[in-house]
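Narrative summary of target 7.
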Amino acid sequence: MEERGQYEVGDFVIPVDLPRIFVCYVTNAYPIGQGDDQLLELQPLDGPWPIGTLLIRMDHMVRAACPVEVDVALPALRSPGRDHVRRGRLPSVDVYVGVGIDDGLGRPSPKVA
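Modeled conformation, tokenized:
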């Protein structure tokens, strides 16, 4: 079996369980157990999700995005409604406090007030 490296905050990855390529930014990476497994919080750069959505995946359910895939996804960030990215940064992870996950499929539940 091929040995995987560890993902870090700021890496670009692609979930392998989605029907098409959606480049995501790793906003957090949590170690799981004694091995190299990680639980990843991912911010999609585009796709059908509202801004602020986080996807949750285990590290073996993503692959590293190649530079061309990231370059293709970045123009989507410059579209209207994504002003936070035009200022040159992704939103803070603090924006996502209170976001839960429904039925393990990576769909965010409403924020808790």
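Confidence is low (pLDDT under 50) at residues 82-89, 91-113.
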